[in-house]
Each structure stands twice: as C-alpha cells, then as structure tokens.
Amino acid sequence: MNKAKNKKYTEGKILNSLTQLALPIILANILHTAYQLIDTFWLGRLGANAVAAVSLSFPILFLVLSLGAGLTLAGTVIVSHHKGAEDQRQVNFSSSQTVLVIFFISILLALLGYFSAPPLMKLVGASSEILADSVSYFQVSSLGFVFLFMFFVFQSLMRGIGNVVLPMYIILATVFLNLILDPLFIFGYGPIPAFGVAGAAIASIITQGLSAATGIFILWRGKKGIKINWSDMSFNLAWTKKLFVMGIPASLEQSSRAAGMTVMVMLVTSFGSDVVAAYGIGARILSLVIVPALGLAIATTTLVGQNIGASKIKRAEKISDLSSKIAFLGLTAVGMLLFLFAEDLTAFFVPNDPKVIKDGALFIKVMAPSFGLLGVQQVLNGTFNGVGFTQASMLISIFSLWIIRFPLAFVLSNKTSLEFEGIWWAFPISNLIAATVAFIYYKMGYWKVRTIRNRHQSPVG
Questions:
Q1: Is residue 418 in some structural domain?
Q2: What are the transmembrane regions (predicted)?
Q3: What are phi and psi of 352, to 5 degrees?
C-alpha cells in the first residue's frame, strides 16, 4: 500500500493535513465547474433555445444528485471512522456496502428520471420550442446516473481514507475528454451523427462511464487503501439503515440549498430584468467563494472523522478550531478584495450597462464582508458531518436559508424603502446569524458528548 497516499491523519501537524486534503478537493470542485462551462459553451453555439433546454433540467438534476451526494457523504464519514480506528476489515466492508446500496439506488433513479422526463419538463415550464430538446437531454442524463453515482462513491470513499489526489486526476482527465467529445456529439463528425442538445448528455455519459469504471476498478484491485469484495456485498439491512440515517439529512441539506436559491430567484424576478442580471452576477461570485469554503469543509469532515475513529476527540476539536480560523481569515481577505474591485468585476460581465454595474457592484459590496462567516458555517457543518451528526448540519442550513434569508429578503424588499436592495442585505445578515448559531452550538460541546456516548454504545459500522 502506498504510504504517501494513505498516510495517517490522526497524528502530525494539523495545518499540513488540512492543506494536503483541502487543496485537491478545491481543485476538483473547480474542475467540476469547468465541466459545466464547457457544456454551456458548446450548446451556446446551437443558440439560446439549446441553453434554455439544458438550463431547465439543472434544478431537477441537482435535486436528484443531492440525494446521491448525501448518501456518499455518509460513506465518507463511516469509512473515515474505521480508517482512524485502523480497522481495515471494516473499511473494506463499509466501502463494499456503500457501492452496493448506491448502485441499486442509482438504477432506480435512472429509470424514474427517464420515464418521468416529459411530465417533469412540462411541470418546470418547458415551452413547445424547447420541450423536445429538454426531454431528450434529461432522459439521456438520467441513464448516466448509474455512472455518475458510482464515481461519487469512489470519490467519497477515497476522501474517507484521505486519498483526495487520485479522484482529482480522474476528474481532470474527464474535463479534457469532455472538451473533445462535446462538439463531436453535438455537431457530429464523419460517421457520428449530430445529436444536438442530447449530444452534450451523450458526451457526459461516456466520460462519466469511463471515470466510474476507473474508480470501481481501483477499488476492486485494492491497491489504494480500499478493497471492495463480492463477499461483502450481500444486502445488510442494519448497515443500510445506518447509511440512510446519516445520509438523508446530508441530502436534505444540499437539496434545501438548491431549492432556497431557486425561490430567491423567483423573488428577484419581480423587480425586473436589470435586477435579475445584477443578482446573477452576485450569485456567480458567491458560487466561486463557496468552492474553497466547501473544500475546507470536506477536508475537515475527513480529518475529524478519522480522529473520532481513533478516539482522539481533543485533536478533532483542534482541527475544527484551526479550519474555522483559516476559513474566517482567508475568506474575509477574499471578501475585502472583492469589495474593492466590485465595479470592475461587474463591468467584466456586463460592460455596457451602467445600472446593472451599479446594482451588481452594490450586491457584491454588501455580501463580501460576510464571506468569512459563511466559511465558518461551512467548516462547522463539516465538523458535525465528520462526527456523523449530519442532522445538525441540515438544521443549520435550513435555518439559514428558510427561516432567516428568504423571509428577511421578502420583508426587506417588499415592506421597507430598501426595495430590491433588501434582498442583498438578507445575505450577510443570514450569514452572520447562521455562523453565530453554528459556533455557539459547536462550543456547547454536545457533539463531543454524543461522540463519547456513541463510542461506548457501539463502533461505527
């Protein structure tokens, strides 16, 4: 077994461990974004209707994928606990069970997505011009759920043992491959016919299939810290229940975030296209800031998980403290830079619209000082996830978006003289309140008491 790639994260310098885990995860997240941008670039060459047809599918696809992402996060946590406890037998067993359960769930979701595509696309408002394209894109994408979820499993299990570089290399290879296959299947070449909008989904399925096959092959060989086996793949009801108990709150957290942003867009649209454009620019900036915050949060989940498995609760707390400080200081610094260059950034997206530049820059300036608080909330959610207390992360996220941000945005924009600027102010206020609640709850130490109690009752897995 390669020692460098499967080093122990239950000892040594915490800062080094955080850096070694967080940077490849952040890069992998950036590559995922590049993957989507490549699709949009080539589809844009077909016209606005092609982009609209695919855009309609994204919210529903994201909701489906959030279910898979939540369950695979549970796999990360369970495997990280066993890795920390140096129980390789349980690492392999838990990994095999995760692959089995997610495989059958992905088949079920693929069939459901394929056959429900026409009514779903009509439900989200697909007009007659784009209905056929949106349905074909969604159906082909649904067939790819099996491959996509299998790669999610591989990536999550590797993160659980601390091997984050290997999945990043595979994602990098798929981005380059997608760059070639997208135009090939969208526009056709030689014997390959032009599939149009569905061609982007076909290209994605091919790259997802290759990455999933590579990941499962690596797990099967067992040379990178995890070995899955047929003998461990008989259905285990107790284990599956544990995966769902831990994974469903994580899925709900992610899907509630997607639904929250969708509802916010509906509120913004009531103020006209200029405000929608300004909001769109601010939302793009926010999505870029979220990338390092989530990378640090996932690294924290792995490190905390392994140290909880090794019964090193004090070290797990030190990891969380350091990660929170890095998130707060680092993202506050990023926020200050964005504050200073807000007009230039907005003008880059819409160079010839003074009103959108003014409104978009104001949105960035209002949000930017609170980016450090957003980072703290994400990292503490990562801590709770690492312990296996995914319900806490879910409740904090739902509280932030649905109890604070959206109602506040509605009241400030509709019931005060702020108008649409009230929507802007809902972001920093909700970031402040959510980070404060998460920090107070973290300092109360219930997660430590819960961990000690669980370890006395039974091991994870």
A1: yes
A2: 21-38, 58-79, 99-117, 137-154, 166-189, 195-220, 258-279, 285-305, 326-342, 362-380, 392-411, 423-442
A3: -120, 30
Report the alpha-carbon distance of residue 164 to residue 354 in Å, rounded: 44
Q: Which amino acid is at 176?
A: F
Q: Decide if 262 is inside a domain.
A: yes
Q: Are residues 307 and 176 in the same domain?
A: no
Residue 305, SS3? helix
Q: CA-based angle 121:127:128, to the nearest 5?
A: 105
Query: How many domains does the structure of the chain reveal?
Result: 2
Q: Where are the alpha helices (DSSP H) in 144-236?
A: 145-161, 165-187, 197-221
Exposure of 317 by Cβ count < 10 A (0-12 exposed, 13-18 middle, 19+ buried)? middle
> Do 183 and 275 belong together in one domain?
no
440 is a domain residue: yes
The strand pairing partners of 189, in sequence order, are: 192
* Residue-level pLDDT at 351: 83
* Coil/strand/helix, residue 184: helix
DSSP code of residue 7: -
Q: Provide the pLDDT for residue 103.
A: 96
Instruction: Measure Cα distances from 315 to 14, 247, 320, 381, 448 in Å.
Output: 9, 25, 9, 17, 12
Sequence-separated (6 or more) residues with CB below 8 Å from residue 129? 49
The amino acid that residue 132 corresponds to is: A
- The CB-based long-range contact list for 258-264 (8 Å cut-off, 24+ gap) reads 258/59, 258/62, 258/63, 258/66, 259/63, 260/401, 260/402, 260/405, 260/406, 262/59, 263/406, 264/405, 264/406, 264/409, 264/423
Say whether both 380 and 347 belong to one domain. yes
pLDDT of residue 461: 43
Give the three-class secondary structure for 445.
coil
What residue numbers bound the domain in which 166 lies?
22-235
Judged on CB neighbours under 10 Å (0-12, 13-18, 19+), 453 is exposed
Segment-wise mean pLDDT, segments of 10 residues, the chain, 461 residues: 57 93 92 79 79 75 82 93 94 96 94 91 77 88 93 95 94 92 91 89 94 97 95 93 93 83 81 85 86 95 94 95 98 96 88 88 96 97 94 93 94 94 96 97 89 58 43
> What single string gives the DSSP state of each residue in 64-116?
HHHHHHHHHHHHHHHHHHHHHTT-HHHHHHHHHHHHHHHHHHHHHHHHHHHHH
Domain stop point among 172, 201, 235: 235
AA letter at 300: T
Q: What are the tokens at 90? A: 């349980």
Q: Which two tokens stand for residue 416?
A: 């005060």
Single-letter amino acid, residue 110: A
**Confidence at residue 4, expressed as pLDDT on a 0 to 100 scale:** 38
Per-residue pLDDT at 184: 93
